[in-house]
Amino acid sequence: MAPDPKAAEPPVVGSGQRYFTWDEVAQRSGREKERWLVIDRKVYNISEFVRRHPGGSRVISHYAGQDATDPFTAFHIDKALVRKYMNSLLIGELSPEQPSFEPTKNKELVDEFRELRASVEQMGLMKPNLGFFLLYLLHILLMDVMAWLVLWSFGMSLVPFLLSAVLLSAVQAQAGWLQHDFGHLSVFSTSKWNHLIHHFVIGHLKGAPASWWNHMHFQHHAKPNCFRKDPDLNMHPFFFTLGKILSVELGKQKKKYMPYNHQHKYFCLIGPPALVIFYFQWYIFYFAVQRKKWVDLVWMLSFYARMALAYVPLVGLKGFLGLFLLVRFLESHWFVWVTQMNHIPMHIEYDQNKDWLSTQLQATCNVHKSFFNDWFSGHLNFQIEHHLFPTMPRHNYHKVAPLVRSLCTKHGIKYQSKPLLSAFADIVYSLKESGQLWLDAYLHQ
């Protein structure tokens, strides 16, 4: 007997309002092309919208079939405006007997984190100090000018050349942390101004496309350390095996793309020295051209034109190319050690659809506060607070940290903070551990 197509339709209640259960929502996770998600008990069909989503199709798709209330709150600064665009996607709401989020989540923990979020907003911790970011930009521009003045004043000898390279590397690293602020909409009260200055900082000061950063980075924030959803884990399994669970799984499958039991050694050879130079440097151009991001491409070319006009007359073409490669080499070390110290040593697995607080805390850790650590990492030593409140201006992370730690203590969630060098060492230790787990599973399971 053929099934009745009407039987599969969601029930219509009252004046045409459709009610759904969590089981129905979970079935629309994208595996069968249809994608739904829930925000504040409202059910939205995002199947077609994903291609038009300003933050990229993947980041919103990662929450298909799930409650997305907390990431929605975390990522958007003008929620009222966004909700206007969401009205056309609304198809109903959860049935009255259904909980506001998946039954597998800890209601007390979810409610208390949302109360914390409301308290943080009332305390004014989401409001930026524009003077802080202006001074930060000025110190980057000052180092940029100093790097040029060193070569202009002292000429093309070894010491001035190296000093200029170090200064330019600091410019690139610090501009990277600053563009991160604008990309997260944490500087201005409107998205428009954040996006505009983001293009300037990442495009003109660093030579990279803003669209590429948005596409990659927001996925990482949405599902950190979740394999196949966090693009920062794409190095698994072709170069490294990451995390205890994935490493054992790879070993059981008898897969060996690299000698993973030695990955803690070759990480220092193919990780920090090479990422920016041999991957990012060409991929960002491929990304911009392949996706026809012509505005991004113009901003990027303005960076290379400015650098060439400034340094070729001083050191010649070969000298400029050597200086540029050295700067990218130093920047790559800086970038990789800082960005990976908070994540690689943490829990890595497939998406378990946990609550927002648990998702972020199992994937992030902090590095102790100090003037140097704050500057060196662009305040990303407060990775926990940054992941919980991604639009919070960085100068307020240390103020909210005690509140987050208190909530974690209450619910038995591990809140890690460590010295900078220990955080660097933990990258190597965790790679060694996961490589050994892979080898044991490969040989014996």
Automatic annotation (TrEMBL):
The chain crosses the membrane at residues 132-152, 158-178, 266-288, 308-327. Residues 17-95 form the Cytochrome b5 heme-binding domain. InterPro entries: Cyt_B5-like_heme/steroid-bd, Cyt_B5-like_heme/steroid_sf, Cyt_B5_heme-BS, FA_desaturase_dom, Fatty_acid_desaturase. It is found in: Endoplasmic reticulum membrane. SUPFAM superfamilies: Cytochrome b5-like heme/steroid binding domain. Its main location: endoplasmic reticulum. It is a multi-pass membrane protein. Pathway: Lipid metabolism; polyunsaturated fatty acid biosynthesis. Keywords: Fatty acid biosynthesis, Fatty acid metabolism, Heme, Iron, Lipid biosynthesis, Lipid metabolism, Membrane, Metal-binding, Transmembrane, Transmembrane helix. It comes from the Eukaryota. PANTHER family: ACYL-COA (8-3)-DESATURASE, FATTY ACID DESATURASE 2. This is Acyl-CoA (8-3)-desaturase isoform X1. The gene is FADS1.
